[in-house]
Amino acid sequence: MRSRARLLTIALVASAGPAYAADPRYPDWPCPQAKVPEISIAAVWSGPPIDDVGASWKDEPKISELVAKLAARRIPLEQAQKDVADFITGTAEEKARKGKLLFAGLFDTLNAQRTSVMNGLERVMRKQRDAVEKVRGDTIKLQEMQSGATRDEAKIEELSNQLNWETRIFEDRRRVMKFVCEVPTAIDQRLFALAREIQQDME
C-alpha cells in the first residue's frame, strides 16, 4: 500500500533526524551543521573597534539604505563588494567613519537574518515531529479500519487520502529544510567577505 511505503520513508527520516541534534542545548536544531546562535564580531572583523557606533548607522539614510542592499542575498557578492568600494571614499577619517558604520549595520542586519532563519528551521523541526506522530496515529487508525469486521470504504479512502497529504507535506518540508540549512553558512560567508572588503577600502 502506497501510504504504508510513505510512512516508512517518514519513519526512517524521523529516526535519523534527532542524530543532527548533537548539542543538547539545541534539541530542535535539524541541520548537520553545528548551530552557532550568533556571529561574533571577532570572527569577521579585525578593523577598528565599533563600540562607539552602536545603532547610529540607522540614523543615516545613505548608510541604512546601503546596508539593506548589501545584506540582500539576491545581490551578487561581487556587486556588493563594488558598492562598498564606491562608498568608502574620502579622507582617512571619512573612510574610517563610513567603514565602521557600514560594518556595524551589516553585522546587526545579517545577524538578525541568521537568527530569523534558524528560528524558522527549529519551528519547522517541531512541526515535523508533530507530523510524524500524527501520521503514525492515523496509520494505526487506518489499519484498524481496514481489518475491522465491517469496512466503511468511504472513510477508509478519506483517511488514506489524508495520510498521503500529510506525508507529502512532511517530505516537502524535509526537502526545504535541507536547502535552508545552508543559509546560515551563506550569511556567515557574505558577512565575512563584505567585512574584509570594508577593511581593505578603509586602508
Shape, principal axes of CA atoms: elongated
SSE string, helices as H and strands as E: HHHHHHH
Radius of gyration: 24 Å
Multimeric status of the protein: single chain
Give a short overview:
The protein has 7 helices and no strands. It is mainly alpha-helical and 203 residues long. The N and C termini lie far apart (67 Å).
3D structure, described in words:
By secondary structure, the protein is mostly helical. Helices cover 71% and strands 0% of the residues. It has 7 helices and no strands. The longest helix has 56 residues, at 92-147. It is elongated and about 90 Å long. It starts with a helix and ends with a helix. Residues 12-19 have low confidence and may be disordered.
Fill in the keyword field for this structure.
0% strand, mainly alpha, 71% helix, 203 residues, elongated
What topology emerges from the helices and strands here?
Elements (H helix, E strand, L loop, with lengths): L1 H15 L24 H4 L16 H11 L5 H11 L4 H56 L5 H28 L2 H20 L1
